[in-house]
Amino acid sequence: MSYWQSQPLVERLIYYYQRTRAWARRATVAGLAVRIVLWWTGVGVVLVAFPHPVAVLIGAVPALVAAGRPGSHWGTLLLAVAIGATAVRLASGLPDPSVMSLVLLAGVIYLHHSISALAAQLRTDTVIPPRVLWWWAGRIGVVWLVSAVVAFLASGLSTPRWSATGWVLAGTGAAVGTVVLLIAARHQWRPEPAEEKQ
Amino acid sequence: MSDWRATTALSRAVILVALALLLGVALGRVELVLLAIPLVVGTGWALLARPPQPPRPRLELDEPSTVEGGPVLARVEVANSGERPLLCVATVRVPPWLRLKHGVGYYSTLLPPRTGTTMRVEGRVQRWGAYRLGPAVARSVAADGLLVADSAVMPSLPLSVYPAGERFDSTQPLPRARGITGTHRSRRPGDGGELAEVRLFHTGDRLRRINWRVSHRTGALHVNTTWADRDADVLLVLDVRHESGKSGGVDGRVTALDQTIRAAAAIVEHYAQQGDRIGLLEFGTGLRRLPSGTGRRHFRAALEWLVRVDPFPRALSLSPRLLTTALRPPHALVIVLTPLLDTDVVGFLAGLARTGRSVVAVDTLPAGAAPPRRTTWTELAVRLWWWERANTIDRLRNVGVPVARWQGIGSLDLTLRHAYQMSARSARVVAR
Predict the structure, then answer these.
(1) So what's the pLDDT on residue A195?
(2) Which one in A136, B228, B324, B402 has a CA-CA gap of 20 to 30 Å to B94?
(3) According to the model, what pLDDT value does residue B310 have?
(4) Residue B131 and residue B153: Cα distance in Å, rounded?
(5) What whole-number distance in Å separates Cα of residue B387 and Cα of residue B368?
(6) In chain A, which stretches have pLDDT less than 50?
(7) Which residues of A touch B108 (CB under 8 A)?
(8) Each residue of A97-114: pLDDT tens digit?
(9) Which has the closest alpha carbon to B5: A121, A113, A52?
(10) Considering Cα of A191, then A177, then A142, then A41, what sign does the dihedral take?
(11) Distances from the Cα of B145 to the Cα of A68, A181, A197, B47, B48, angstroms
(12) Rounded CA gap, A198 and A192, in Å?
């Protein structure tokens, strides 16, 4: 071992280089492809929510972190920021985004969420048969189609003549109802406490 | 309580839907509801049907034993009893010398409704040894990745990888053949293939043994006598206290330990096929032994014994004195497989020869073995060391220990002939 190789900093850098190389050797093409697509969809969410080159450049970093750790809440944070930013745009005096861009944003948000759910279960070195990816893609396509139909039907409904208070109450009821239903589902499959597992 | 657990994805869906809907209501902008529609549809559809009981996977190994470089095939079998497809991800711990055909031990598959499927874990094992494949766990993923369930741990399975050395063959008889039948020429006259002498006919001699040509020439009846064929006892002593570098597996760099184990396997196979009795003795941190035996079953037992040799030699070892007491039976031919890296084993070999035992040493140190180059003096030091070692081997030969480098087929012929002659000479001395 030479003098330079024995230096702590160089030694650590060599260690990280070797770890990265070992990881690259282990990784499978499909495993990496899932992460790369996840990163791109993260960038896509930022691109649609903040249509500005600088925002995309800044957003690429959290998107990369979310793709690197799909089992964490980094993805949740990224998507929540995108929804929040859209809300701010709608509430501020700026010109409203087009319906098409909102539909696109909704689609990309779901795409990122769904791929993130898949990536959280598959390490980059997992052997993934192509039919797993095709099935997942098909499922996302079906959800997109059904969502488009639901949105189309909802927009085609005749608007009832309610007062502003009635609108707020109905909206709040619908929103809270949906959330409660989802939270109930979330609690139905709540992780078991460690002592109960024994 | 269900075995399924919620994932971060389910929490994310709930949080994002709640955020979009509540912001839409708070700001009075119905457009924000649009953002939540795919999440609501996707999550609702995923959770609409209750997932079935999580599959109970099984880990199976096609063959529990193979040879170095041979194939290994294990299967993780899973079955989906539900109406919805499941994603199954299996994690199998694989032995260090198993080179997998695909991946590094993580496999995924799609389980269609009401069907079973198999994930194949296949590869080739590169080095001898006693390994365990597994343990393994399988994670089932349901409801679009919103729910997961981990299976119980599948216990590991034993995998024996037998050494695959060069084929060994020898035509030399072994000294001190014993027993009733066998392939080795003994020093007793009897039924056999090798001519001992032509002598005068005695009462009781078989007529078919009469040598008519000699009888005609001499005018008196003469008969051919032959040496009896007997089997022999062979005791292999494996010096596994030292290692020379890092093994590269069956296709890579050979170490002293690799050479020792592969040579032992080849010798055992050869003598087992001949019907000789073979015993094994490990000279390492312990004094493990396999009693003498013969036949195919004993050969398999010997291979199993060989793969259990500690692949990480330690400097701490037993005294050669203890080894001397374990050399049974006393008339056996002792073949010591050693890299000759210390003086203990040299003294042991010389001592054996002095006591009149038939002993043969097989040098298992690979030809290019050398320590890593540390300084400019390393090369010179290594050359000196090799010369000193060559001197030691010469001294061993002088005291009556034939030493041969292991080279596969026929590599022991010369040394075995030497041992046979030495044994015959000592027998004649005793007879006088």
Answers:
(1) 43
(2) A136
(3) 82
(4) 18
(5) 14
(6) 192-198
(7) 121-122, 126-129, 132
(8) 788 888 889 999 999 999
(9) A121
(10) negative
(11) 17, 18, 22, 11, 14
(12) 10
Residue B28, chain A, CB below 8 Å: the answer is yes
Helix (H/G/I), strand (E/B), else coil: B195 = strand
With an 8 Å Cβ cutoff, is B34 touching chain A?
yes
Phi, psi for B71 (deg, rounded to 5): -80, 150
Note the pLDDT of residue A192: 46
Interface of B with A in 36-75 (CB under 8 A): 36-43, 45, 47
Strand partners, B88: B109, B140
Q: Can you read off the two tokens belonging to residue A194?
A: 């460690």
In angstroms, rounded to a whole number, what is the distance separating the alpha carbons of residues B165 and B259? Answer: 8
How many C-beta atoms lie closer than 10 Å to residue A65's C-beta? Answer: 16
Contact B10 A185 (CB under 8 A): yes
Task: Mention every residue, 6+ apart, whose C-beta is less than 8 A from residue A111.
Answer: A41, A44, A140
Nearest-by-Cβ selection for A117 from B9, B102, B104: B9
Residue A185: list chain B partners with CB under 8 A. 10, 14, 43, 47
Closest-CA distance, B41 to chain A, in angstroms, reads 6
pLDDT one-digit tens code per residue, B108-160: 998 888 888 888 889 999 898 899 997 999 898 988 888 888 887 889 999 99
Count the helices and strands in chain A (H runs, E runs): 8, 0
Chain A residues in contact with B29 by the CB 8 A cut-off are 87, 90-91
Per-residue confidence (pLDDT) for residue A176, from 0 to 100: 73
Q: What domain range is A22 assigned to? A: 4-160
Chain A nearest C-alpha distance from B370 (Å): 17
Chain centroid to CA B195: how far?
A: 41
For residue B135, say if its preceding peptide bond is cis, omega within 30 degrees of 0.
Answer: yes
For chain A, the domain total comes to 1
Strands across the sheet containing B98-100:
B58-61, B71-80, B115-125, B98-100
Structure tokens, A28: 């499978």
Per-residue pLDDT of B283-321, as tens digits, reads 877 788 888 888 888 889 999 999 888 878 776 666 767
State whether A186 and B15 contact (CB < 8 Å): no
Cis previous bond, A8, omega within 30: no
Q: How far apart are CA B36 and CA A151, in angstroms?
A: 10
Answer yes or no: pTM beyond 0.90: no
**Cα angle value B273/B129/B318 (rounded, 5°):** 90
Give the mean pLDDT per block of 10 residues along chain B (432 residues). 79 87 80 86 83 84 89 89 86 90 88 87 90 89 87 88 74 56 56 74 84 89 76 82 82 86 86 82 82 85 89 70 72 85 84 82 84 79 88 88 78 66 56 50
| Spatial distance between the Cα atoms of B72 and B121, rounded to a whole number of angstroms | 8
What amino acid occupies position A165? T
Q: Report CB contact under 8 Å: A175, B24.
A: yes
What residues have CB less than 8 Å from A154, skipping those under 6 apart? Answer: B33, B37
Tell me the angle at which helices A74-91 and B31-48 cross, rounded to the nearest 10 degrees.
150
Gap from B424 CA to chain A (nearest CA, Å): 56
Chain A with chain B: Cβ pairs closer than 8 A: 198
